[in-house]
Amino acid sequence: MNSLGLLEMLALAFVIALPGLKALSLQPGAGGGSTLSACPSGNGQVVRLVSKTSTEYTVFFSGCPFYSPYNQTTPNTPAFQNKTVTFRITPVLSSTVTYVGIYASGTTSNSQKIMSTIGYTVTGIAMFSDADATGSDAYVNEGHTFDGCRGHAEMNGLYHFHTEPGSGCVYNETAGTHSPLLGIMYDSIPIYGALGDNGVPPTNLDECGGHTDTTYPFYHYHTTYNLKSPYLVKCLRGCIFNANGNPSIQQYNLVKTDATCVKAATQYDYSSFVNPLLSSSPVTTSSPPPPPSSAAACRWHAWLAAVLLVVCTLATQGFRTA
Ligand SMILES: *[C@@H]1O[C@H](CO)[C@@H](O)[C@H](O)[C@H]1NC(C)=O
Ligand SMILES: *[C@@H]1O[C@H](CO)[C@@H](O)[C@H](O)[C@H]1NC(C)=O
Ligand SMILES: *[C@@H]1O[C@H](CO)[C@@H](O)[C@H](O)[C@H]1NC(C)=O
Ligand SMILES: [Zn+2]
Ligand SMILES: [Zn+2]
Q: Which Pfam family would be a valid example here (predicted)?
């Protein structure tokens, strides 16, 4: 403390208080009422395996990307989501599919639109269906608000993709090879980029946008080639065992149990599927992630630290001159 003068201490106090001030000015805009902290303009990514049983695993995602999400042009501020999501280790294919986004209309199996999050990228970013908040094609209507990674934030600050992300935003393609893993959908089935075996767009995708191929002999989805509708998937072919907080999945009783999931005749062996979410570290098996800390509390702690520093500084100066 001796080496720090009064001015330095005051400057330090101000720097400590600064994050609190920043949190104050960066509260999510439209949608209001949210107390979630804004994503940083640097790396905000957290992906952490929380727990794992013989059948399922739970992962914690911060919901913020590893790059700045501030190029998107909606009025909303990208914010931490601190989301905990549970998937099956081995997906179970269902006898019926669940249509998502704008494709649910006019179908017999589920006629309601499935909006909001239908999967997560391996980097912990939400994947939405093709529908925007009004139930129209989000890429067509809101594509102008996407950043260079094709992400944008909804009214609660949830940063998400509706399509294959931009190059390098989750993965980079390697010429001549199958696309890398993009993420896991809510039916626990993996989704890859647009390219199949030998780096060629697949020609045998089913209605949902899935297939098996030589590279990956278990059923998996692909994003569409050249950003064609439905961009991610048109339907989910596996049983959904956990709505993971998506109200439209919850509301329409689409969540199954082992007893109510009607299995398809063909099931797949996923033992060769390498799932990076199962090895995300550090691995904890007991303690859940901390609850979102309120921005207001952070602000007060910052101010308290600043005030204490000033008091400490003045006291030290006082002793010296006395
Ligand atoms: C954001 O904008 C900067 C400057 O135009 C650009 O270099 C960067 O790639 C953009 N990033 C994203 C994710 O859009
Ligand atoms: C993609 O490649 C670029 C350039 O080599 C690299 O800087 C970036 O880290 C890569 N991104 C990912 C997600 O691997
Ligand atoms: C959870 O969210 C808060 C903001 O709401 C953030 O400050 C905190 O770092 C997040 N926790 C983790 C582990 O990412
Ligand atoms: Zn959107
Ligand atoms: Zn494939």
A: YHYH
